[in-house]
Amino acid sequence: MKKISKLLTIILLGGMPMFLIAQEDGVKKIEQDMENFKKQYQQGFEDFKRKREEQIRLMEKEYQDYYNELTGLKNYYTSKKDTSKANCVAEIIDYEKSICKATDKNIQITEKVVIENEAEASAVKASVQETQAEINIPIPPVQNTAPAAELVKPTETTFVPLTDEGDNVPNITPLPKPKAIVTSPFGERLHPILKVRKMHTGMDFGTGMDAEIYAAANGKVTLAKYSKTYGDYIIVEHKNGYSTVYAHLNKYLVKLGDVVKKGQVIGLTGTTGRSTGPHLHYEVRINGTPVNPAGYLSYLK
User: If exposure means fewest CB atoms within 10 Å of the residue's CB, which of 1, 48, 187, 243 is most exposed?
Assistant: First the structure.
């Protein structure tokens, strides 16, 4: 009773017992820790955003350089009267123009590239590899279609979606797992037709004929057409500047303007266009600029 009476006296006199003071201090410390955590998290998130924006700027520059070089390569083959290769490069340029138009990206020649000999046409530009290293996206070893024993799984990359927006982010592999074997990754490679080193803007999967292709995210079909180089191909536009491309199809199962759901079957793999065998050429683009799809692959089935 004396202890209770003493406690009541302290409270009535405006004081506070020690255990209540300790509790209040504990609550304040937790609140302060939470506030510090939020600040640190926000700073980390802002740093991540800045790094990502810089990555995108570097990739946009690389893509622009690639486009400029394509025009130089076309002019070189035209001057050499190599009509077959000149037409092949012209088809790639038309493909890029079509994708940029479908994704509202303004692409045009910003610098005239003059190629004077075959060595220059075949050379790998050091700046491309330097840019890839700067943005911490490793260029995997060059691979063309290979025997089954030599096929490789998707490589890792640090370039990942900015936020998890569920079905609006193209973060699934657009094929059944047994068919999702990478035969040619994103980056510099020896072009299978031109036989020169050239940027590969997507990732090839050696699927065989008529494998089901899934939409990588919710979106709308903004292009479904035929290209002499890429065969029958589809572009699906997603939110926040994302778009995905599916090429060399045997058949597409959607049409221009269709709204598709993530995981929906939109086509079947094939070997249409300039192709050395049945496969899927798959691209992820941000505001029309191709990025390494490897960071967006998560097996669906």
Answer: 1
Q: Is the pLDDT of residue 216 over 80?
A: yes
Q: How far is Cα 148 from Cα 160, in angstroms, rounded to an integer?
A: 28
Question: Exposure of 176 by Cβ count < 10 A (0-12 exposed, 13-18 middle, 19+ buried)?
Answer: middle
**What are the DSSP calls for 183-246, one per residue?**
EE-SEEEE-TTT-SEEEE-SEEE---TT-EEE-SSSEEEEEEEEETTTEEEEEEE-STTEEEEE
What is the CATH classification number for the domain harbouring 53? 2.70.70.10
Q: In this predicted structure, which of 1-10, 49-58, 103-112, 163-172 has the lowest mean pLDDT? A: 1-10
Lowest mean pLDDT among 105-109, 197-201, 267-271: 197-201
Give which of 132, 131, 172 is closest to 154, Cα–Cα: 172
Task: Give the residue ranges of DSSP H helices in 80-185.
Answer: 83-102, 118-122, 126-134
Indicate whether 25 belongs to any domain: no
pLDDT score for 51: 77
- Show the domain range for 167: 46-296
Coil, helix or strand for 247? Answer: strand
Q: Within a domain: residue 143?
A: yes
In a domain? residue 1: no
Nearest-CA neighbor of 244 among 217, 269, 226, 271?
A: 217
Q: Measured between alpha carbons, how far is 274 from 229 in angstroms, rounded to an integer?
A: 5
Q: Encode pLDDT of 229-238 as tens digits.
A: 899 999 999 9
**Can you tell me which residue has the tokens 């035969």?**
183
In a domain, 261, yes or no: yes
- Note the pLDDT of residue 114: 86
Give the pair of three-digit tokens for residue 92: 């790639």
For the chain, how many structural domains are there in total? 1
- In whole angstroms, give the CA distance from residue 138 to residue 157: 7
Which pLDDT score is estimated for 128? 36
